[in-house]
Amino acid sequence: MTFSSQNQFILQIIRVPLTSQDALDSISSLESKGEVDLLSDGKAGYVDVLIPPRSPHSRLLSALGGVVLSRDVGKKVKEERGSLLKSSPLKQGDFSYDTYHDLETMYAHLEALAIKHADKATIFDLPGDTYEGRKIRAIRITKDIQTAGSEDKPLLWVDGGIHAREWVSPATVMYIADMFLGEVEGEKEEEVGEILDTFQVVIAPCINPDGYVHTQVERLWRKTRKPSGCRGGVANWFGGCFLEQCFGVDPNRNWGPVGVWNTTGVQNNPCSIVYPGTGPFDQANTAAVRSYLESQQSKLQLYVTYHSYSQLFLTPVGYSAEVVPEDNAHYLAVGEAVVRALAARHDTEYTAMRSGELYPASGDSPDWVYLELGVRDSYTVELRDTGEFGFELPPEQIL
């Protein structure tokens, strides 16, 4: 089911614990038939289901232990949309974290940062265009960026916005760019300076720009926007669809490597929110990121991608619950340190775990970076919250 800007205002969210494979299979079957939409993928041990309040399937979800999280998704959507529209346009360089911003405003802020901090920052677009003709913009930050040697430094990559509806993800990644350039948290200048002496940091706040723009009319959209086929594979004589035209691919199920892609945690129904596409990197946005990261493989030391929600720090691997990396002790130590730091900073409780521990899913970006590019430190951060607001996280909780 894809919920338009009209019908998303009569929906509720039910959280169902994944206590058995039967529960997961039942919910996946409803999703594949277009009867419900899924808001979370089960990595936290539960799945949040978007469903009309009078749906005949409400009883099944209740029998599986489901509880209602929200009876009025539309109220939150309307409030959030109003906040976004008020936030733009801004003058170049004006940027705040008390609201969410549209794509053009974020890109304009990156340009302003590069002008203001010309000794440390430069912007560039990843190769090619998205399906709808947009660019994926990134900012590269390091000390003495104009010198030839700056491009030879070890590279740290940070991205956000791969799932369109996760608005807090691009906002957080924008804040990270501001932090590295001293626009916020100026007290960290010495610590940040030491990092930029040694490393170059490349930050891409929104790597699914088509989807992100579409959320301004269909707030809970997750995927890319390229037409992906017909529900049930049933086309009519005129090249259209009898049942429903499907759009988009889950861009975090669209990565390789071959042999891992499309093996678990996916649906081959093109209308599903976890449809992996017809092959790895068949989406222009994932192919663009792959192209850049492959060109930097010898320098890439860290990959971090920001998502929401669930408050998790996820380590390799995601495609299997049984595969435990040989250097898992390293990940346990990193995870413990990250969770401790987040608790000290924000008084928020995060959980560190292997990405596939509760709900394996193939074709995500950290697995490809880890398996194909050989980068040990490849992580996912699932940001706030744990479901009270979900994707409609209030702007005051961005920081």
What does this structure look like?
Helices cover 28% and strands 17% of the residues. Strands 5-6-8-7-11-14-12-13 form an 8-stranded mixed β-sheet, with helices on both faces. It has a 4-stranded antiparallel β-sheet with strand order 2-3-1-4.
Assembly context of the chains: single chain
Number of strands: 14
* Range of strand content: 15-25%
Helix fraction bin = 25-40%
Strand numbers in spatial order across the main sheet: 5-6-8-7-11-14-12-13
| Total helical segments | 10
The topology string of helices and strands comes to: EHEEHEHHEEEHHEHEEHEEHEHE
**What number is the mean pLDDT?**
89
Class by helix and strand content?
Answer: alpha/beta
- How many whole angstroms does the radius of gyration measure? 21 Å
- Tell the overall outline: globular
Distance between the termini: 32 Å
- Largest sheet geometry: 8 strands, mixed
Given as residue ranges, the uncertain stretches (5+ residues, pLDDT < 50) are none
Keyphrases for this structure?
alpha/beta, 399 residues, four-stranded antiparallel beta sheet
